[in-house]
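Dear U.,

For the methods section draft, I wanted the exact inputs and outputs in one place so we can describe them consistently. I've listed the two proteins in the order they'll appear in the manuscript figures. Please don't edit the token lines directly; just add comments below if something needs changing.

First protein:
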Amino acid sequence: MVCKEQPSPELNEFPLVVTKFYQHILALVFAVEEINKNPNILSNVTLGFHIYDSYDDPKMTYHNTQDLLFNSHNFVPNYKCGIQENVIGVIGGLTAETSSTMADILGLYKIPQISYGSFQPELNDQLEFPSFYRMAPNEALQYQGILELLVYFRWKWVGLMAIDDEGGDHFLQTIEPMLLRNKICSAFIRQIRKDLHKVLDLQKVAETQKYLPAFAVSKADVIIIYGETSSISWLPYAIAGTRFFQELHPEYPEMVSAAKVWITTAQIEFTSCTLLKILDMDMEGLHGALSFAIHSSQPGGFKEFLQNVHPSWKKKDGFIKEFWKQAFSCKFPNDMEPIDTICTGEEMLESLPAPYFAMSMTGQSYAIYNAVRSLAHALHITYSSRASYRIIETGGRPYPWNVETWKLHSSLQMMSFNNSAGDEISFNKHGELVGGFDIRNLVTFPNGSYIRVKVGKLDPQAPPGKEFSINEDRIKWHWNLTQVPPLSVCNDNCHPGYRKLKKEGEKFCCYDCAPCQDGMFSNEIGRIYYMETCVTCPNDQYPNKDQDRCIPKIPNVLAFDDTLGIVLISFAVLLSLTTVLVLVIFIKCRNTAIVKANNRSLTYILLISLLLCFLCSLLFLGRPNEVTCLLRQTAFGIVFSVALSSILAKTISVVLAFMATKPGSRMRKWIGKRLAYSIVISSSSTQVGICILWLGTFPPFPDVDTDSMTEEIVLLCNEGSSIMFYCVLGYMGFLAILSFTVAFLARKLPDSFNEAKFITFSLLVFCSVWLSFVPTYLSTRGKYMVAVEIFSILASSAGLLGCIFSPKCYIIVMRPELNNKEQLMQRNK
């Protein structure tokens, strides 16, 4: 049976009907008829129903709830007047206030109540409301979906609008911290009068204008609106009224376009009523809106069911005529209304635009459909569990077993079934539907109709990381948006090469743009999104001049084909050949006085070590590898130590030779090659020991230096241990200073064959080169550091070669007549 309880006269102040909600009634009727025709469920039971209209008024809700339970206009609790079938469950209501009002009464009698439009978090308490269920997932999941949507599109500056009630307060208190944690700012926050939808006549439309500055003037392109269908029905009027806003508010000379991206919650169903026709308004202001909706499907046969609906289809339908008049703007013959059009009853529901009536099942209608089937399945489970007790013989006549409503709760809590559309229906421990949300895009058409296209979903049962998904290509954005997807930021994005600087006294989403610091960059990371801060390039790259991208660093190495490398190679080869030439001369003239005068063996050792010094400089050229890194410093240190040890031995030999000439001197026994060789071997062995210790503990290895130079990456040999490297240099310096000291003291000894003065000058050159090497080496980078060391090796070795051997070669080659003992003795006299 379908009936309508008429409201009291004072509640019938607003005759306008939300025609789209009539589908809720039809979904209920469709579900009941589908169950009654199904032999597999409640085969011996016929479901019936009563429909009551609360008129969005708490008093009327209490009135109708008690009338439903007790069938009495006097409302005597626990007393039923007349014959009435037992109530096994209640489906309702659409709003949170209606649901909670009904739950206060129904909970006392443990009658299951399944809400199809309420998300009120207070009703989740199963201890306080054990009889309350809802055909909606947990609201926290919807908040997470809103956040995921904002993060996906990089929207940082959004407006928040919510109803001024407990639900709106809870929404704002929950969503704002979530936004802040994800670096999203609220451009404005507005709480709207809950009864604003009642201010819907031509004289009072201007009342909505005071809410316009919140979204029409804000730079936020994205606005999140929380509420219920009736409480935000003023929104299309407010959007349409923006064209009058500039005239009403001259203090805003440059009004921002009302083209926004509206994000609405699942409680909201886009509807319109007769006033839209009167004001010649439509839904195009909401074109491109993104809305969350409880996942829904289309049961088979529902569209055909709607096509059979007409004013006389059900005699007990107390809603059909009022709906028909409002939907088609007509009147029936006996109505006393100032309307010329007569309702013929042949009008087609398919001709109505979607804001007035939809031929596809809406999300709320789908919730009603599933609620009816849930109660039926719970009742079926209860009947099945008591199959042996269904019939009680009384006087030979069977009668059906009457179910107590409190027994349905265990069946509802454990219930899980697939409806005719193939969706699984079950409740969690809080009495909420186990499921997710669809993300739908509102697409409007010039004729005032619209469709809601599914563009994404939020599925908590999906694998981790895939709960949120969206198909951006299917989204139709508002026509007047200057950029799609919109940016929705407090400031325009900083251009590549710039960074954000926070504005004092403003929210962190508002900023100034400043150039990136040296060595950092910022650039485009998507179609329209830019980095918020400057970042450092990878180690092997550096920022370009505009600091908007990174480019690879050029390898910095002293290569063989480099100009500087060619010059150094040329000097090394030339000096090596010169050394070989000197060695050949000395070997060829080994029996001459000058060659024999200062220990030929030490001279040969010195010349060979100087040759190796020139050649070891070539190890420093080219790309470093493991072999060259191991040999570079160690070979250089050992060879130079041999050269310096030879010079020290030669100098000490001169001193001992002079002292041995004194009568009665005991130094004669020290004169000879044995002492010289001992000095060379012992001095060189110490350096060899240092190098072996170095290679055994922290050996050099190929490395790269990405920090020293901005635009180049230095390929080098890491010394492994700087201490060991400076120990090698320090020991060389010790030998050089020791040799220089001995040579300096012996420079004026009266001996014809005394070369101490030449050794003194050569070591002065040697020490000068290496003293200047250390600060120069530490102040250079890259290949120039290597070049400094090569130059120091060549210069110091050339100083030893030139200062010690050039005078002797001059005599041997240019003045051979002087290269005899008599001439040298004569020169000395």
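Second protein (the one for the lower panel):
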Amino acid sequence: MSDDRTDDDLEALRRALAREAAPAPDPEARARAMALALENYDRFQGRASGLRQGKDRPAGAGFLNGVRRMSGSFFSRPLLAATGSVAALGLALVVVMPNARLAEPPQTAPDAPEADARLAAAPEAGGGAETAGAPVPAAPQAAEPRARSAAPQTFAADEAMPIAAPPAPDLALSKQAADAPVRALPQGDSEAFANAPDNPLRVTAEDPVSTFSIDVDTASYAILRSSLRAGQLPPREAVRIEEMINYFPYDYPAPENGTPPFRPTLSVTRTPWNPETRLVHVALQGRMPAIEDRPPLNLVFLIDTSGSMQDPAKLPLLKQSFGLMLGRLRPEDQVAIVTYAGSAGEVLAPTAANQRSTILSALDRLDAGGSTAGEEGLALAYRTASEMAGAGEVTRVVLATDGDFNLGISDPEELARLVAHERDTGVYLSVLGFGRGNLDDATMQALAQNGNGQAAYIDSLNEAQKVLVDQLSGALFPIADDVKVQVEWNPARVAEYRLIGYETRGLRREDFANDRVDAGEIGAGHSVTAIYEITPVDSPARLTDPLRYGAEPPEGAHGDELGFLRLRYKAPGESTSTLIDTPIPDMLTEASEDVRFSTAIAGFGELLRGSDKLGAWGWDEAIALADGARGADPFGYRVEAVQLMRLAESLSR
């Protein structure tokens, strides 16, 4: 029956066409078709972003570019114009659908959070660490040693770090960098960043002691990355060099059983930008306990659902990020959700972490709208956390926000005092920033630093994977609280010194032994790196002359020491600190791969801040140094950094 009906329909169409004369050519329709065709051509050839695949394309892109060149010869503008009559005739012959129009050009790829949201569907209850449609890499924990390259490159102690040629142009993009879309930063931003002027050069004879709190935050690196990917240099005040250095995992020696929870490692190398000075690396590596030995975890997700969180890079990405974390929690862990906008409320009562469908459903129901009652939300989150806390357990509030507090307390210092008061109850606070445009980094830093927590910025699911999955133990499980560093430099050996970064973490000399003064925490498996540039007393690079009436150091006093390192920390839950100390030997060491890479990142930060400390050392040297120290780099963090450095160099011109 269906075949007969089809034949009848075709025959009726033939008769209708035979009766109707071909429509007369329409000059206006032809002109409209030609204009639209040329417009589509121009839009295909130059997208709104204006970006082109350059010589830095990933390996294997040559074939695709060859296809593009071939298609370009077929679809050149003159040839398209010459064949416009055929297009117009084809349009005129469409008599069944007189309102038909040429197809619009395809839309550009969706932004990261929207695309990632579809790729990383919510995991089912009881599943593993993967998400439907987008398997999550089974990455090792942060403390596991990175694989070394087959033949690591080292340099003799009396050699300066070499200035190599810039990397070859076929350097492949990491998957993380390649997958990241280009997003323009919002216009009319009101962002605020926490920073301070560069640490000054200190004269050892006048000020021999340097004291600071450790910092394992990573927000600054992710923020500057989002700026560079948007085609803009980051604001100078957004660049915190210590957070750039500590963004990357390093293979420092781990502490042995029965020793303090972290181990210091010291190295002294020549400075790549000034062969007459030295760099002293102070590295700490935290212990990674066995996963089965970690205590139960109580998490309160404190989620900003105000109107400013509507952007796809904010609340939608936030939901997916927390969804990734759930696969790494254990059945004895608990999760609660508190939200705040015009007012605060509990969306999910404390729930066992293996009830993933219940938790994900609560996340999925969240919508953005209203003002930002941050103070009220914090108070409710802390009350919820205190009710969940049990003996021997770790309890933490994880605040996810763009930092735009505009109801109740909004001043960073007042919020810091509120959090500091709650810190004494033993509840930790971590802060995750989302989105750009009104990012209040200053408030986020004040909260994290006073809440014994980490501040991170999440700009993609890749970053959420790194912070909330791969480094979950380090982000959530503390092994040492109030960790302070103090270095006393020997004036007989060191004329001048400066600490690179840590401007917002400086402490007074008397704060070091005062257990009432707060400092940073080290999480399980965390590494911490600090770099000093020092000038030997006999170096021609010395910038200050000895004082005429200054006290001369006694001859031969600790002549084999550049200085003395002291560390203080508290075991979690304790109120009294423990002291670790060790001399810094006056001996050049080989520049390991980790030392060279962290030095390159320090130089990257100095260049972004417009520092005058580097002399003629510039982008080419920084890129070459980082590229030569990439190593195995299993997750592409280091190769991504090299790409960002090259992008920053181009933008700086």
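Candidate sentences for the figure legend, describing the second protein: The chain has 19 helices and 16 strands. The radius of gyration is 30 Å.

Thanks,
Y.
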